[in-house]
Specification:
The complex is a heterotrimer of chains A (126), B (427) and C (348). With 427 residues, chain B is of the alpha/beta class. Helices cover 20% and strands 33% of the residues of chain B. In chain B, the strands form 7 sheets. In chain B, strands 17-19-14-20-21-22 form a 6-stranded mixed β-sheet, with helices on both faces. In chain B, strands 8-9-1-13 form a 4-stranded mixed β-sheet. A 4-stranded mixed β-sheet of chain B has the order 5-12-10-7. The longest helix of chain B is centred in the middle third of the chain and has 21 residues. Chain C has 348 residues and is an alpha/beta fold. Chain C has 2 domains: 168 residues, Response regulator (Rossmann fold); 123 residues, no CATH class. Chains in contact: A-B, B-C. Chains B and C meet through helix 6, strand 20, strand 21, strand 22 and strand 26 of B and helix 7, strand 7 and helix 8 of C.
Chain lengths: 126, 427, 348
């Protein structure tokens, strides 16, 4: 069963590219703060639909993160809780250097993050 | 019975020459001919060729892919089916491989590019590709091209060059021949009664741009878990489109020479019956993970397997696929050994994986990718050091004034490979 | 020549068994005692034992601070390159003493230390992540093998050489992952491991999954206003004066205290025995850890049926998981027998 979803993101390119078609919740914050925001949603009963550590670009390396959660609250999903907690724990393992890149590199990070979340959309749409 | 003969054409050196040919174990490369093959793609503006030999004071970076040239001499299909050759089932007949060498594609795709191959020094110990004679193809994109257009351009250029070089071996006599025989499900059961039925379950990176793998040309994220004859991968049935996470991505070379396939064949008919190769993916969407892992477990059951080796590719997201596959396959009563790598932090004290389950009680590790290493200044750089400061595992101080580089080994191509290709481990 | 100080208990010093366990620490400069002889042989000419310190196991554990201070002062004066304790095999108090003193020598004096004991010795659980601990057999028959592993590790530490992975330098995995190159590649090791697993032969996983003791939640309470709720804590809240002497760390027991009629825990009546956090706020108002006041209010307002008239308490600071499990299994039975419907478990 496919689910109505929203995308929680701090990636302006995701907002720009997808907001006309999908529900995008854009927040200006860090990668880890996106994970924490999604954790709060999960504890409220929203279901996690994409993996929070999507992509091999490491946390604290890319500043961008987009995660898909269910549009509606359902019942608390223990597996979603487990996955998001592991993901948040993972952040501390990597040296922070998200702010150390040449300006044009951020566009690359944005594109890769966009493509990662876009790869989930065919699986998620009705 | 299906049979593949894999002939080894040993290449002990590569040199540029007026004509491409293999003579007395030396590969002579006509530079202009190879360049013309690369530049067939209008998305590539220019390319430079270079040669890096084991022991030379040479650093190759940023590496995109590593490919072993092969040629199909007998049997159906051609190398890289659905990608370079027409779609046709491969894995039977006769294939020659140029051993001891590789085509390495390098050059910027994105600004956080990674992948270091040092041909000498401490870094060389961490990459399996330092032991090869490498023909390095450094590509440069046309102006204004988008990343998703350029990545396939470089990917295909590498395959075209590899196929061109492989063709040079068609009429040669192999230095050595390995024979791989596989059987139908019933046939194998009759031939090896009493031997445990074993398969290799390989998870393929399939998360999106720069994170993709292709099976007979099909994007792995759009596939259901399926079965292959274990020899198909030797003819290039699986190729890499993955350029992120240098240490634990599987370059095409690793697919062609997959260690688990090779080492299971070594035991095939002796201590186990190597039934088949099962492939599955590592999608971003969680319901896809559920479906794919349900299917691998179901296939393991349908094939009446006793045991499997399960390998991974990448960091984070795939840890979840690894654990889901392991848990479900074990729950079917099929004994499972998993191969992974670790991100335990620079101090080695953090939890290594982003998921865990008690069912994963037999783990092979490729080591802690966060381990810090200092790479000495080498005389020559093929590619560019522009991205060393920004690669995964590097930082703004990575490239030091004295020319040495301090990075985590995750920046080194193949350092912690999760198909068990290398010797690194951790406890 | 590398200088070594060796710590052993009264038994291995051949002073006596349990009847001599109360003897205070003794310092035997220039003497090689008990397993020291085997160490001396293993060191060849590379190192010498300059002093052997002997202490009764009961004495050490019952006079912890004093014993520690005495021994630390001696070790400081002797200034060895490395400190060795044990091996303790399966002797529990001896193992804890070895771990404790090694940890103190490292932390206070900056001198590297190594010990050895059986994996199930409670000292192993407590100290293996702090002190290099060589796994030994569960009795002194394993002495030769233990020394064979402890001696080279001690020499390496003394020489400040890099310590390899646990399987290379023979210590218990200590939570630090160390890379090294294996002789066989990963795929071959995977096939070998699978063959062992298929044949039900022993094999050792290269990465033990973090162990989680998963507890299935009980069904929710239907009507809280009729439920009896008990308080349990690992935060060390005890009646003032700590009448049952619950240890400030590595607790060996728990306490059961009656709070019939107690409406509020005050500075005059309750305190914490816990040695692992700043006790000021808990001592000022123990309700902060064990919320008796809030539950009394809920009881009064009918939110809960009633607060159980006993609470159970221990100190979670370094207490072995096995001990904690044993405590709770015991008092859980009492709680069930007393008709308690639910427990609020507080930690710190």
């Amino acid at each position: 069963m496919k689910k109505a979803f929203k995308i929680v993101t701090n990636n302006p390119l995701v907002k720009e590219t997808l907001e006309n078609e999908y529900h995008i919740e854009f927040v200006e914050c860090s990668y880890e703060e996106i994970l924490r925001k999604v954790r709060n949603y999960i504890y409220e009963g929203y279901e996690l639909l994409t993996h929070p550590l999507s992509g091999s670009v490491k946390p604290n390396e890319t500043p961008y993160k987009s995660i898909m959660v269910s549009e509606k609250k359902e019942k608390l999903d223990p597996r979603s809780m487990e996955i998001i907690e592991y993901a948040i724990q993972s952040c501390k393992k990597f040296q922070f250097k998200s702010d150390k890149y040449a300006p044009e590199v951020y566009e690359d990070f944005q594109v890769v993050d966009l493509k990662l979340i876009e790869s989930a959309i065919p699986s998620a749409i009705f | 019975m299906r049979r593949l003969e894999l002939g080894h054409i040993n290449i002990k050196d590569i040199q540029f020459g007026p004509e491409s040919k293999i003579e007395d174990g030396v590969l002579y490369v006509d530079e202009e001919a190879v360049k013309a093959i690369v530049l067939e793609d209008e998305r590539i503006k220019d390319c430079k060729l270079d040669i890096a030999r084991p022991g030379e004071s040479v650093r190759i970076t940023p590496v995109k892919d590593v490919i072993e040239p092969r040629v199909k001499v007998e049997g159906r299909g051609g190398i890289f089916p659905g990608v370079i050759s027409k779609v046709d089932t491969v894995g039977e007949g006769k294939t020659y491989a140029l051993k001891g060498m590789a085509v390495v594609t390098a050059g910027k795709i994105v600004g956080f590019q990674e992948g270091i191959i040092d041909m000498t020094g401490p870094g060389a110990e961490y990459t399996p590709f330092s032991k090869l004679n490498n023909l390095v193809v450094v590509c440069e994109p046309v102006e204004g091209i988008k990343q998703h257009d350029y990545e396939p351009a470089v990917r295909f250029a590498g395959f075209r060059v590899a196929v061109y070089l492989g063709e040079l071996a068609r009429e040669l006599t192999p230095d050595k021949t390995e024979v791989f025989e596989t059987y139908g499900v019933m046939e194998g059961a009759e031939k090896f009664p009493g031997l445990p039925r074993v398969a290799y379950v390989q998870m393929l990176q399939s998360q999106g741009l720069l994170h993709d793998t292709y099976v007979y040309g099909v994007d792995a994220k759009k596939t259901l878990s399926t079965i292959m004859t274990p020899t198909e991968i030797m003819d290039g049935a699986i190729v890499s489109g993955n350029c992120v996470s240098a240490c634990d991505k599987n370059p095409t070379y690793v697919h062609e020479n997959n260690g688990v396939v090779h080492d299971l064949f070594e035991e095939h008919g002796k201590t186990l019956n190597f039934v088949c190769h099962i492939i599955t993916n590592e999608n971003v969407y969680l319901a896809d993970k559920q479906r794919s892992s349900d299917w691998t477990a179901k296939l393991c059951r349908l094939l009446d397997l006793d045991g499997i080796v399960l390998s991974q590719e990448g960091f984070g997201n795939p840890d979840t696929d690894l654990i889901m596959n392991c848990k479900k396959i074990e729950a079917e009563g099929v004994k499972t050994v998993i191969i992974t790598d670790e991100y335990a932090g620079r101090d080695g004290k953090s939890q290594s994986l982003a998921d865990a389950d008690v069912a994963a009680d037999a783990v092979i590790t490729g080591g802690n990718a966060n381990q810090v290493i200092v790479l000495p200044k080498l005389d020559k750089v093929i590619g560019t050091l522009d991205y060393v400061n920004t690669i995964a595992g590097g930082n703004e101080h990575s490239l030091r004034e004295d020319g040495t580089i301090e990075v985590e080994i995750q920046a080194i191509t193949g350092a912690t490979n999760e198909t068990g290709f290398g010797y690194l481990s951790a406890r | 020549m590398i200088k070594v100080v060796h710590y052993i208990n009264q038994f291995f010093a051949q002073i006596g068994g349990e009847e001599k366990a109360h003897i205070p620490a003794e310092r035997h400069d220039g003497e090689v005692m008990g397993p020291g002889a085997a160490f001396k042989a293993a060191f060849k000419d590379e190192a010498e034992i300059i002093s052997t310190i002997v202490c009764g196991d009961s004495y050490f554990n019952e006079n912890l601070e004093e014993a520690k201070a005495t021994i630390l002062a001696w070790v400081k004066e002797l200034n060895p390159d490395v400190f060795i304790a044990g091996p303790a095999f399966n002797a529990g108090r001896y193992g804890v003493a070895c771990g404790t003193i090694c940890d103190a020598v490292q932390e206070e004096l900056g001198i590297p230390a190594v010990t050895g004991m059986y994996v199930e010795n409670p000292g192993a659980d407590m100290f293996k992540n702090k002190v290099y601990t060589v796994p030994t057999k569960n009795n002194a028959a394993g002495a030769r093998d233990a020394v064979k592993k402890m001696a080279p590790l001690a020499l390496k530490l003394a020489k400040k050489e890099a310590i390899g992975a646990s399987c290379q330098d023979n210590y218990m995995p200590n939570g630090v992952r160390v890379n090294f190159f294996e002789e066989k590649r990963g795929s071959r090791r995977a096939v070998d491991m699978l063959l062992n697993k298929l044949a039900d032969k022993p094999y050792t996983t290269e990465y033990p999954m973090p162990a989680f003791d998963r507890v299935a939640p009980q069904p929710a309470i239907k009507d809280l206003s009729k439920a009896t709720i008990a308080l349990v804590t690992s935060g060390g809240i005890v009646p003032k004066g700590n009448p049952d002497h619950i240890e400030s760390s590595n607790a060996s027991h728990y306490g059961e205290y009656d709070i019939t009629g107690v409406m509020d825990l005050t500075e005059a009546t309750y305190e914490t025995a816990h040695g692992g956090y700043d006790p000021v706020y808990a001592n000022e108002d123990a309700d902060r850890v064990l919320p008796v006041d809030v539950l009394r209010e809920m009881e009064k307002n009918g939110v809960i049926g009633k607060l159980h008239n006993k609470f159970y308490t221990t100190v979670g600071n370094g207490t072995a998981v096995a001990s904690a499990k044993a405590f709770s299994e015991e008092f859980a039975q009492k709680l069930i027998a007393d008709g308690v419907d639910a427990v609020i478990l507080t930690s710190t």
